[in-house]
C-alpha cells in the first residue's frame, strides 16, 4: 500500500499514473521489447486494483467517521450559540432598564439645577445690588473708603463698578442727586483717563496681553473710541520717515493687521479707522504737496505726478483689499481715494487737452523752425473750397508752383513725438477718467491727435507737396511728391497702430466707437484724395519729361537714314535715355509705396508710357532700315516694360512690337501678318495707320496688297 501511495502525485493524471505503475513493474516498462512480459504486467495490474479497492474502503470508513464527528460538533456549537443569544437578550434588557434609570436621574438633576438657579440668580442680583448701593452711599457721603477705589491694582474692578453706577446715575432725577451724579461722572472720567493712560503705556512697552485687558474694559466706556485713536496715533510714530509714503503705509497696515486682532474685539473696525487716518492725513497731505507745486506752473510735471500718485494710491488700495475691513471694503477704499483726488480729477481732462495742444504745437513749430520754414496758411472758406473742387475735377494746378528744394516737410521724429505724447495721454485718461467719461475724454484726445498729426502736419505736407509739383511741360523737373507719399504711408501705419492699440480699448464698448471710426475714415479718405491727385500729376510730369527727351533726342533721319546700308546702331539714343529715365521712376515708385498701390500706379504709368510711345512713332516715316531700327527701339521699350511686372503693360508693348513689324514686312506678306494672333483683333484703321508710315506706302503694289 505504501508503494501504491507513492504513485499518487499532485496534480493527479490517470495516464501518467498508469505509465509510472507499468514502468515500476519488471517486464512492463519496454513495450514490444524482448524483456516485455504481458502476463507479469496483467498480474501486477490485478494486484494493484485489489490494493486500490482496499485503500478505497479504508478511506471511506475514515470519511464516515469524520462526518459523524463534524455533525456532533455542529450540534454542540448550535446549542452554545442559542445559550449566548439568551444571555445577550438578558443583558440588553438590563441595559434598557439602566438607561431609563439614568434618564430619570438626569431629569431630576436638571430640575433641581433650574430650581437652584432660580433661587441663586435673584440672590446674586441682590448681592450685586447691595454692593452697588454700598458704593453709591460712599459717593453720597462724599468719602470713598472701599479698597476697590483706593487700590490702583484693582482698577479693572473699579472700572466695572463705576460704569454700572454711571448708568444708574443717569436714571436719577437731577434736582435731588445732582451732587452725587457729578461725583460719579468725575470718577468715571478719571478712571477712563487712567485706563487710556494704562493702554498707552502698555502699547509702548509692547505688552499685547495688557493692551487686550484694558481695551476689553474700555469697550463699555464712552472713551473707547479715544483708546482706538491713541492706538492709531502711536502705531504711526516713527513710521513715515522715508520718501516712499505708500510703501511705508503698506508695511504699517501689514504689521497692524497681525496685531489688531490680538488687542481689540472688533479688529476690522480699528484697521479701517487706521487706513482712513492714513489716507485723510498722511496721503492727502503728501499728494497736495506734490501736485500744488506744479499745478499752475508746469502742466507736464503736474500730469505726470497726478498719474503716478493716483496709480500708487490705487496699487496701495489693491494691497489693502487683502485685509478684513468690513462688508464693503471696495466702496470704502474707493471713497477714500476719491476724497483725496476729487479736486484734481474734476478738471483733469481740461488740463490734459490744454497741455496736449500746447505741447503738440511746440513740437511742430520746433520742427519747422529747424527747417527755416515759415508755415504757409492754407486758406479756408468759399474761394478755397471752390479751388479745391476745381482741382479735384480737372487736376489742374491752381496758383504758382512752389519750389520745396526736395523737402517733404514730413518728419518721423515729429510723428513719434506726437504719438508718444498722445499715448501717454491715453494712459493717463484710462487711469484718471471716471468710467462714464472715459470714452468722451478719449475721443477728445484722439481729436487732438487728428488735428496736429493729420491736419497740421501730414495734410500741410500734402498741400505743400501738391503745390511743389511742376507743370507737365516743365523741363528737368525734380519730382519729390513720391517721397511725400512714402513718408505719409509710413506715418499712416503708425497712426493706425496707435488707434488700434491705445484708443480702441478705451471706446470699444461705447457709442464713441462709431464716431472715432468715422472720423478716422474721413481723414484718411481726405488725404487719399490728395495723394491720388499728387500721384496723377506726378505721372503727368514723368510723361512730360519723356516727351522732352524724345523731342530733343529723336531725329527724323533716325528712321529714314540717308545711307540704308551703313546703319551701325542697335537702337536710337532717344530710346536709351527714355528707358533709363523710366527704370529710375519705376524703382522710385516701388520704394515709395506698398501693397496693391504699387501695381495700380505702375499700371497707370505703363499705360501712359505706351500711349506716349505709340503716338511718338506715329510722327515719322520709316524706310526699311528705319523700320528695323523702330522695331529695335520698341523691343527695348518692351524690355523696359517687363520691369513693371504688370501683364497689361507687357501685352500693350507686345502688340506695339507686332505693329512695328508692318513697317518692314514684304508687301506680299502684309495680309498674312495682319491676320496673325497679335494683330487679328485690332481695328483695321490702326493697322492702316501704321502701314501708311512706310515710305513705300504710295507705291501701287503696296496699296494693292493692303487694300
TrEMBL record:
The keyword Disulfide bond does not apply. InterPro entries: Sec10-like, Sec10_HB, Sec10_N. Residues 38-146 form the Exocyst complex component Sec10 N-terminal domain. The keyword Ribonucleoprotein does not apply. GO terms for biological process: exocytosis; Golgi to plasma membrane transport. The lineage of its organism: Eukaryota, Metazoa, Chordata, Craniata, Vertebrata. Keywords: Coiled coil, Exocytosis, Transport. One of its GO terms (cellular component) is exocyst. Residues 157-706 form the Exocyst complex component Sec10-like alpha-helical bundle domain. Residues 49-87 form a coiled coil. This is Exocyst complex component 5. It holds the Pfam family Sec10_HB. Belongs to the SEC10 family.
Amino acid at each position: 500500500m505504501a508503494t501504491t501511495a507513492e504513485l499518487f502525485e499532485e496534480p493527479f493524471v490517470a495516464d501518467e499514473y498508469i505509465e509510472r505503475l507499468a514502468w515500476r513493474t519488471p517486464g512492463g516498462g519496454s513495450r514490444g521489447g524482448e524483456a516485455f512480459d504481458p502476463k507479469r504486467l496483467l498480474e501486477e495490474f490485478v494486484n494493484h486494483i485489489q490494493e486500490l479497492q482496499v485503500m478505497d474502503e479504508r478511506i471511506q470508513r475514515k470519511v464516515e467517521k469524520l462526518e459523524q464527528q463534524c455533525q456532533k460538533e455542529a450540534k454542540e456549537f448550535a446549542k452554545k450559540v442559542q445559550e449566548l443569544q439568551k444571555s445577550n437578550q438578558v443583558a440588553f434588557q438590563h441595559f434598557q432598564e439602566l438607561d431609563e434609570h439614568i434618564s430619570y436621574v438626569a431629569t431630576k438633576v436638571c430640575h433641581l439645577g433650574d430650581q437652584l438657579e432660580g433661587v441663586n440668580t435673584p440672590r446674586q442680583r441682590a448681592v450685586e445690588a447691595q454692593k452697588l448701593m454700598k458704593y453709591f452711599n460712599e459717593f453720597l457721603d462724599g468719602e470713598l473708603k472701599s479698597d476697590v477705589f483706593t487700590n490702583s491694582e484693582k482698577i479693572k474692578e473699579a472700572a466695572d463698578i463705576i460704569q454700572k453706577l454711571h448708568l444708574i446715575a443717569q436714571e436719577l432725577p437731577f434736582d435731588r442727586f445732582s451732587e452725587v451724579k457729578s461725583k460719579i461722572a468725575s470718577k468715571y472720567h478719571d478712571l477712563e483717563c487712567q485706563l487710556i493712560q494704562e493702554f498707552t503705556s502698555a502699547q509702548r512697552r509692547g505688552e499685547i496681553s495688557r493692551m487686550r485687558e484694558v481695551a476689553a474694559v474700555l469697550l463699555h466706556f464712552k472713551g473707547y473710541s479715544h483708546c482706538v485713536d491713541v492706538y492709531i496715533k502711536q502705531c504711526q510714530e516713527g513710521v513715515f520717515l522715508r520718501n516712499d509714503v505708500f510703501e511705508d503705509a503698506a508695511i504699517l497696515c501689514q504689521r497692524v493687521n497681525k496685531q489688531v486682532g490680538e488687542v481689540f474685539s472688533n479688529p476690522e473696525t480699528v484697521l479701517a479707522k487706521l487706513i482712513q487716518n492714513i489716507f485723510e492725513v498722511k496721503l492727502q497731505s503728501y499728494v497736495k504737496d506734490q501736485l500744488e507745486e506744479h499745478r499752475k506752473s508746469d502742466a507736464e510735471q503736474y500730469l505726470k505726478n497726478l498719474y503716478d500718485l493716483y496709480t500708487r494710491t490705487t496699487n496701495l488700495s489693491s494691497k489693502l483689499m487683502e485685509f478684513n475691513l468690513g462688508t464693503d471694503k471696495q466702496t470704502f477704499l474707493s471713497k477714500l481715494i476719491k476724497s483725496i483726488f476729487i479736486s484734481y480729477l474734476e478738471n483733469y481732462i481740461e488740463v490734459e487737452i490744454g497741455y496736449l495742444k500746447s505741447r503738440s504745437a511746440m513740437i511742430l513749430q520746433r520742427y519747422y523752425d529747424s527747417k527755416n520754414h515759415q508755415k504757409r496758411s492754407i486758406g479756408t472758406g468759399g474761394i478755397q473750397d471752390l479751388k479745391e473742387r476745381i482741382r479735384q475735377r480737372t487736376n489742374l494746378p491752381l496758383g504758382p508752383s512752389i519750389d520745396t528744394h526736395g523737402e517733404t516737410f514730413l518728419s518721423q521724429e515729429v510723428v513719434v513725438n506726437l504719438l508718444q505724447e498722445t499715448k501717454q495721454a491715453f494712459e493717463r485718461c484710462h487711469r484718471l477718467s471716471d468710467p462714464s467719461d472715459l470714452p468722451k475724454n478719449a475721443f477728445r484726445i484722439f481729436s487732438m491727435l487728428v488735428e496736429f498729426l493729420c491736419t497740421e502736419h501730414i495734410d500741410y505736407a500734402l498741400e505743400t507737396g501738391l503745390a511743389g509739383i511742376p507743370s507737365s511741360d516743365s523741363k528737368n523737373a525734380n519730382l519729390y511728391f513720391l517721397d511725400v507719399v512714402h513718408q505719409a504711408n509710413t506715418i499712416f501705419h503708425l497712426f493706425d497702430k496707435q488707434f488700434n492699440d491705445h484708443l480702441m480699448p478705451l471706446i470699444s464698448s461705447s457709442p464713441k466707437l462709431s464716431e472715432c471710426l468715422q472720423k478716422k475714415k474721413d481723414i484718411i479718405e481726405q488725404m487719399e484724395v490728395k495723394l491720388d491727385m499728387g500721384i496723377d500729376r506726378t505721372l503727368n510730369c514723368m510723361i512730360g519729361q519723356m516727351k522732352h527727351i524724345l523731342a530733343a533726342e529723336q531725329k527724323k533721319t533716325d528712321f529714314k537714314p540717308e545711307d540704308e546700308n551703313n546703319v551701325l546702331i542697335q537702337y536710337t539714343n532717344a530710346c536709351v535715355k527714355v528707358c533709363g529715365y523710366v527704370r529710375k521712376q519705376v524703382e522710385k515708385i516701388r520704394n515709395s509705396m506698398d501693397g496693391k498701390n504699387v501695381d495700380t500706379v505702375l499700371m497707370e504709368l505703363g499705360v501712359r508710357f505706351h500711349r506716349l510711345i505709340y503716338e511718338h512713332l506715329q510722327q515719322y516715316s520709316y524706310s526699311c532700315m528705319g523700320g528695323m531700327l523702330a522695331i529695335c527701339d520698341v523691343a527695348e521699350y518692351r524690355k523696359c516694360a517687363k520691369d513693371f511686372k504688370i501683364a497689361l503693360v507687357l501685352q500693350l508693348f507686345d502688340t506695339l512690337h507686332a505693329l512695328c513689324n508692318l513697317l518692314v514686312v514684304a508687301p506680299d506678306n502684309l495680309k498674312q501678318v495682319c491676320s496673325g494672333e497679335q494683330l487679328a483683333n485690332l481695328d483695321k484703321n490702326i493697322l492702316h495707320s501704321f502701314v501708311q508710315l512706310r515710305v513705300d506706302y504710295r507705291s501701287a503694289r503696296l496699296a494693292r496688297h493692303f487694300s
